[in-house]
């Protein structure tokens, strides 16, 4: 096992990518365990960081770690060694903390445990997939560097063919993404044949490609809806179940969206922001009653002498 690791990771120069990948996955798992313990209100867990009542999200610590890892790598002149691996670990840990709150950055609101918060889990899964494919040695769009000592005349021909291949694969990946097939398009960046298949097949009914190319009532749109119900919806439900098993259950978005910045703290759901209601005019005071007439003085009765 050690010989395999040295041969496939160290000698190929992929040790920094390996350290980044391991630190990223570890950081995501640890932070999700932490937030789920906070959500469960476990007494022995420290909980949120709230100095002076200010809730500091873990994306702040992630940005700091990414700056430390990135700047530290820029300060190292040697392209290999343990220092580069340490910087890659720090950068990967920070990236996990940042992407775990990607939905917060996107919506500028604390949507961590709502349905919109699933965007963070999607972003983490995409980053893990891309880092894993790079770690396996795959290159985007079929790009491969030429071996040293290549004949200059043959190098120009190879570069021209490579440029045409990259442009074609890039176009197929863009078309696949426009058709609403996110995972197919992302993996197709590294597996060009998959992007071609995604570009040829029908688009997702709600995708931009379907809105542009499939008129209402057309046969293509009807086929796309049938395929979406038969194939894509079960896969999406399976993906959501997997995400909620790993990252926790997300609640439906409350009414009155968007939420206030303090709407969700540690998994506790707060009341949504109420809509503005025009003030009710005060009721007029009832008219004053007329003063009652004074009672007539009773006649004085004198006794007979």
From TrEMBL:
Extent of Low complexity compositional bias: 290-299
Lineage: Bacteria, Bacillati, Actinomycetota, Actinomycetes, Streptosporangiales
Protein name, entry field: Integral membrane protein
KW Membrane (keyword) present: yes
Stretches of the chain forming a coiled coil according to its record: none
Key word Signal present: no
Chain intervals for the UniProt region annotation (Disordered): 257-305
Keywords: Membrane, Transmembrane, Transmembrane helix
Superkingdom of the source species: Bacteria
Biased amino acid composition, Pro residues: 278-289
Residues that span the membrane, as ranges: 15-35, 56-76, 82-108, 120-141, 153-175, 182-204
């Amino acid at each position: 096992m050690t010989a395999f690791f040295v041969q496939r990771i160290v000698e190929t120069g992929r040790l920094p990518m390996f350290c980044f990948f391991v630190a990223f996955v570890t950081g995501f798992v640890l932070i999700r365990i932490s937030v789920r313990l906070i959500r469960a209100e476990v007494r022995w867990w420290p909980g949120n960081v709230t100095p002076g009542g200010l809730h500091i999200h873990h994306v702040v610590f992630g940005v700091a770690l990414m700056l430390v890892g990135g700047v530290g790598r820029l300060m190292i002149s040697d392209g290999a060694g343990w220092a580069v691996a340490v910087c890659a670990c720090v950068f990967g840990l920070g990236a996990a903390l940042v992407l775990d709150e990607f939905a917060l950055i996107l919506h500028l609101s604390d949507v961590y445990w709502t349905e919109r918060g699933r965007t963070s889990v999607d972003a983490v899964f995409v980053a893990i997939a891309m880092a894993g494919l790079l770690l396996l040695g795959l290159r985007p769009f079929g790009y491969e560097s030429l071996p040293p000592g290549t004949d200059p005349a043959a190098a120009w021909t190879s570069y021209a063919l490579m440029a045409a291949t990259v442009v074609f694969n890039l176009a197929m990946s863009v078309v696949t993404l426009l058709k609403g097939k996110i995972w197919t398009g992302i993996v197709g960046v590294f597996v060009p044949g998959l992007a071609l298949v995604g570009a040829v097949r029908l688009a997702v009914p709600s995708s931009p490609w379907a809105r542009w190319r499939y008129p209402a009532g057309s046969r293509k749109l009807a086929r796309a809806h049938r395929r979406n119900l038969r194939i894509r919806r079960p896969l999406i439900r399976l993906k959501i179940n997997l995400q909620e098993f790993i990252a926790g259950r997300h609640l439906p978005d409350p009414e009155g969206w968007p939420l206030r910045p303090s709407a969700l703290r540690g998994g506790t759901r707060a009341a949504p922001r109420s809509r503005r209601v025009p003030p009710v005019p005060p009721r007029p005071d009832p008219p004053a009653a007329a003063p009652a007439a004074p009672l007539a003085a009773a006649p004085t009765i004198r006794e007979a002498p």
